[in-house]
Amino acid sequence: MTVEKIEPHDAEDLTAFDHVSEWVFDLDNTLYPQHSNLFAQIDKRMTTYVARLMNLGLDEARVIQKDFYHRHGTTLRGLMLEQEIDTDEFLEFVHDIDHTPIEPNPELGQAIKALPGRKLIYTNGSRKHAEAVADRLGISEHFEDIFDIVAADLEPKPSPVPYEKFFNMMGVDPSRAAMFEDLPKNLRVPKNEGMVTTLLVPRGTREMFHEEWEFEKQDGDPVDFVTDDLTEFLQEILAVIR
After folding, report:
1. pLDDT of residue 217
2. Residues 89 and 203 in one domain
């Protein structure tokens, strides 16, 4: 098996987006940069929820929360399978955060608006949280719809089942679609279904990936492109496909 590094994108490669008419964006750490630390607030509140539910200290609760995440894909899924919870209460609690660290991004809005075709948000979070983020960024009007964890019947990415629900409910043809995500594992199904995939990495790490195994591209790798600046990357795509 040949192994090659994922190189920074270039103009010739971006012709891979020529046929795309369905643009699908993850939310957290994708539409806004990771350094906003917004998801850190959600993560902390999930730990607090687990601690209160199971009458544990925060340190012990965090270990259990992360165990749920690694074994079941999300903390919520783990709680659903191993505890009795009110899922609506959980989603409301963990997304009750301060969204003000996210600043308006008119350049991102203009780039998304200019993309040819439909634009959708697909998130493992709640619709309410997605709407709050999009409103803060000033990009809400450019998206046709949001597919959230409730629409997915509470089954998270990267399971193939919610992707199929997403494709069917939203009328998305994967062969004409692109997916933007911050987790490589969440791009495997989209890639296998024929989508063009882009991985968002923390600012300044596109060429020096934080984990070597994530940076190596192998046969069957789910990542087509890597960028640490979504706005700039979309502008580069537009410059090529127009």
Report:
1. 56
2. no
Same domain, 84 and 147: no
Short-list 68, 40, 43, 73, CA closest to 54: 68
Number of helices (H) and strands (E) in the chain: give both, helices first: 10, 8
Q: Which of 227, 225, 202, 223 is nearest to 213 (CA)?
A: 223
At 197 the three-state DSSP class reads strand
Looking at the fold, whether 212 and 112 belong to one and the same domain comes out as yes
For 23-36, letters b (16+ CB in 10 Å) and e give bbbbbbbbbbbbeb
For residues 75-96, b (16+ Cβ closer than 10 Å) or e, as one string? bbbbbbeeeeeeeeebbebbbe
Q: Helices 75-82 & 58-72, crossing angle to 10 degrees?
A: 90
E strand or H helix that includes residue 213 = helix 212-215
Q: List pLDDT tens digits, range 219-233.
A: 568 999 999 999 999
Number of independent structural domains in the chain: 2
β-strand 216-218 against 3-5: which pairing, if any? antiparallel
Q: In one letter, which amino acid is 44?
A: K
Contacts of 51 (CB under 8 A, 6+ apart): 57, 58, 60, 61
**pLDDT greater at residue 4 or residue 88:** 88
Q: What is the pTM of this model?
A: 0.87
Contact by Cβ (8 Å): 28, 137? no
Residue position matching structure tokens 């209460």: 89
Query: Containing domain of residue 48, as a range?
Result: 38-94
In angstroms, the CA 224 to CA 196 distance is 7
> pLDDT band for position 18 (50/70/90)?
very high
